[in-house]
């Protein structure tokens, strides 16, 4: 009587056992079950080389190590973000300078800022444009290289409450002059899209912390 050496029901691995753990890692138990299933169902005349099993286990270990490292890096990143937010929260009530060219004026309010001239500029002017395109010009005269401070007084200029865009030009084709706007830090929040801190400056509006350039002394107003 012939005896079939393979007359044995193949080992079936439960599909639930093959699912990743809740942490997204392949478990050692899953690997062992797959290994046993592979041995039980291999061709006896052409068995799988044991080196292949060792290689598979090594690859699994590397994947688990990488997943663990990724989780640890994410934890560190979250911790750094929290520390950064706590540090920035100490700036509430202090003056700050940020790169920008837009301001938000309230009734009878003022906005301060400064221009950075790489070299001397003749007939320097600051242009203030509202949402309708109406423009108000503040002459700043001839200025040497360096910082040029300016103040926008809504009352004196007859500007209504609203948002305005700013630009500065000088004779000789000097345009796109770097500008920083000053305001008191009113609040700090985390932007849900970029996951980065955003500071709200009085008279300026929301400013990403990456655009901040200087912090001044605490306001006494």
Provide an overview of this structure.
It contains 3 helices and 11 strands. The chain has 221 residues and is α+β, with helices and mostly antiparallel strands. The chain folds into 2 domains: 15-89, no CATH class; 95-216, Immunoglobulin-like. The strands form 2 sheets. Strands 1, 3, 6, 8, 9, 10 and 11 form a 7-stranded antiparallel sheet that branches. The radius of gyration is 33 Å and the shape is elongated. Mean pLDDT is 78; it is low at 1-26. Belongs to the FlgD family. This is Basal-body rod modification protein FlgD. Residues 1-22 are annotated as: Disordered.
Helix and strand topology:
Blueprint: H1 28-40, H2 50-89, E1 94-99, E2 102-105, E3 110-117, E4 121-129, E5 135-143, E6 146-153, H3 154-157, E7 162-169, E8 179-190, E9 197-201, E10 205-208, E11 212-218
Antiparallel strand pairs: 1-8, 1-11, 2-7, 3-6, 3-8, 4-5, 4-7, 8-9, 9-10
In helices, the fraction of residues equals 25-40%
**CATH fold-type name of the largest domain:** Immunoglobulin-like
Total number of strands: 11
CA radius of gyration: 33 Å
Q: List the uncertain runs.
A: 1-26
Number of domains: 2
Number of helices: 3
What is the SS-derived class? alpha+beta
The CATH architecture classification of the largest domain is Sandwich
Biggest beta sheet summary:
7 strands, antiparallel
Order of helices and strands: HHEEEEEEHEEEEE
Shape: elongated
| N→C terminal distance | 105 Å
Overall pLDDT confidence: 78
Approximate strand percentage: 35-45%
CATH class of the largest domain: Mainly Beta
């Amino acid at each position: 009587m012939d005896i079939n050496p393979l007359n044995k029901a193949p080992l079936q691995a439960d599909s639930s056992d093959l699912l990743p753990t809740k942490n997204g890692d392949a478990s050692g138990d899953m690997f062992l079950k797959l290994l046993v299933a592979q041995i039980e169902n291999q061709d006896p005349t052409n068995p799988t080389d044991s080196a292949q099993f060792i290689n598979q286990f090594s690859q699994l270990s590397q994947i688990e190590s990488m997943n663990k490292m990724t989780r640890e890096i994410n934890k560190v990143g979250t911790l750094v973000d929290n520390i950064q937010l706590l540090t920035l929260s100490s700036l509430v009530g202090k003056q700050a300078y940020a790169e920008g060219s837009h301001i938000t004026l309230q009734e009878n309010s003022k906005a301060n800022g400064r221009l950075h001239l790489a070299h001397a500029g003749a007939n320097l002017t600051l242009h203030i444009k509202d949402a309708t395109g109406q423009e108000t010009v503040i002459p700043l005269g001839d200025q040497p290289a360096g910082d040029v401070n300016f103040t926008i007084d809504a009352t004196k200029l007859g500007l209504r409450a609203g948002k305005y865009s700013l630009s500065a030009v000088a004779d000789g084709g000097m345009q796109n002059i770097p500008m920083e706007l000053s305001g008191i830090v009113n609040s700090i929040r985390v932007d849900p899209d970029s996951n980065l801190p955003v500071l709200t400056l009085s008279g300026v509006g929301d400013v990403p912390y990456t655009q901040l350039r200087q912090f001044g002394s605490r306001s006494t107003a």
